[in-house]
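TEACHING EXERCISE
Course module: macromolecular assemblies
Task: Read the component lines below, then compare them to the predicted structure of the full complex.
Student: A.B.
Group: 4
Components provided:
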Amino acid sequence: MPELTLAAEPRRRALARLAASWQAAMRPSVLLEARRNRLLYTSWPIVILASLPFSAAIAYAAGYPVSQGPAAALLTWVAAGLPLTAALFGAVAGAGLRGPAAEAEAALPVSPREQAFSALGGAGAALAVTSLLVLAMTFLSGSDGRSVLAAVATLGNPHDITGRAAFAAAAVLGLFWILTVSFTAAFAASHAVLGAAAGVFGAAAALLPVAAGLLLRFNHGIPAGFIVTALLASGLGAAGAAASLAFCAPRAARGVRVRWTGWAAAALLPLCGALLSWPALFTARDRVLADSMPVSSFPDKPSGWSSPTGDLRESRGGRLTRLTDAGELTLIAGETPSLADLLWGKRLGFVGRVLRDSTQRIWAYVIPPDARPRELWQGDGKGPMKLYMMMPAGAHLELRDGKAFLNLMPYVVESTELYPLDPAKPPIIKGQSAIIP
Amino acid sequence: MPSALRLDGIRRSFGRKEVLRGVTATAETGKVIGLLGRNGEGKSTLFKILLDLLEPDAGTVEVLGERPDGSGRLRRRIGYVPEKPVFHDFLNAGEVLDWRARFFPDWDDARARGLMASLKLDPATRVRGASKGQLAKLAWVCATAHDPDLLLLDEPTSGLDALVREEVLDGLIGELHAGGKTILIANHRMEELGGILDEVWVLSGGVLSAVVELERLRAEACLVTARLHDWSARPDVPGAVPVPSERPLAAWAAFSREAADRLAASGGLEVVERRPLALPEALKYLLEDTGGYDA
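Instructor-supplied answer key:
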């Protein structure tokens, strides 16, 4: 197979080149990065360790069980401390390659790209060690910590249907993303604070929609996982940041002239995860809005048991549709909830009760999300329904002998306040009684 | 003999300031070349381009037969002493050498330690708090311990005391020269290098305005004094630069016999004196000349 031989040879050569580069330039550069920022990489875990007795003392002083202090501190370190650690390590390592260090290492036979990726690797190794330390301490701290780490423990389990494994993988990629963005920004700007800020805000710009998408998933139980988006966004973000670094490092270090479009592309590359995650969030929102469930129709009293009507479906916000051979027909448009309403789990409008009388006319009332009165709608089911009337407080919609009635005293067993509903003329409500026009 | 350096039309600007405007030169292997230029003329920029630390905007560079490609591999064959040596301040001198050794396959630790001892540099000397002279010595050790083929020395004696300077100039550079290394030296006190230089490149106005063989300069440079018939028609001869004089006499520094002869042959003047120029004076006047010629 000559083709295979030809393909294998360049691959072997490329691997050999990579191995030689690692041995000659990158390995010592990684070690040099570890040495350069040894103080930061060793003192930061000590700060984390020192926070535990401090938090225990605060818990004791506040009258809580002493063990809750370190547990809370460790959970804070896992949720917020590790992303900040990634930003800190990346920014310090990236800015550290410029200035005095650049002059000190100028004559070394290492390319700027090897130098940059070695320093990034050194910072990444330090981040991994710090993260493992925090995770180990969280695991050892008790059951609270272990439940948080359950997500990490399921990493790689193909039978995990909760998505925790993928979420953990996305979290790991997200940390690497923040590290790389911070490193690249600090390297490009020669400024650690700017780099850390860019890392945190750049990653937040992309990770916020991911987090929002996860919230949508958990709040509304949309069937497909937003987890895949989280994985792709984090992975693409990290890869984009690495590609940006590969572009910037040799050009910035050697003063190569680059058109503004080149720098703009380099600035946008780390955000390619965000370019994916924002549309994904809006797609997830649309899926939540499009998600519908069968509406139960109530038969005649007194049996009162509801049963699915089959063709009528309800969506969030009080939207009622009917499945026809020609497709989905909107009967009541409802009020489309905003993304914020969906995220914060705000009470949404919904279809309260649906009846089908003997003439196949559909009667339905919609309960709005706020204190407004319920709306009673009616229609023949072949087109959009019409608002029939505003229902009085406490009134019910009932079906008796195939006819729709408004019951003003639904909780009285033999209510006399039953008014038949005429599609052409809604009853006029006066206090607790209705007048049939 | 093959060329160690080949520069063709090198241009480099920083913002709107064009520092190098087309530097063209060739250095033969084994030559010791002095790079003469005022502050800000682009000597350090040229060194950075040769070290593959800076990309020229235009032109081609060939160093030791290789084109700088940004990989940094070329620096394995180059020793560099910067004007202001910088090292990681968390290391001591011995640790600096240990770290360097990891990057250079041909690093000769015995040679490095020996050189350190001969320069009387204690390996325990902390970089933080080291004197200018100690840093300069350390830079020398770092630049030569991997047995480079090309040495780029940017003010290499800056900060060294007289004794060490002598040892470096007479001993170290001489030894490297004898070993066939090509050396490019930028030094404000070029006269102290007079004994070892083969050539002088004068960098002025962003170009190499003169390339002079030192032996020839030493033998032929002269001060020509003449009486001018008409001061408004003062002759302008390539290879000769007017120098201050008292009227009615005018004076020129001529850097070659041909230049002096051409000056004497130009009309409107009467040569009254022609005396040899000392090398430091010749170099000083050479720096003032921007005429552009080879001698």
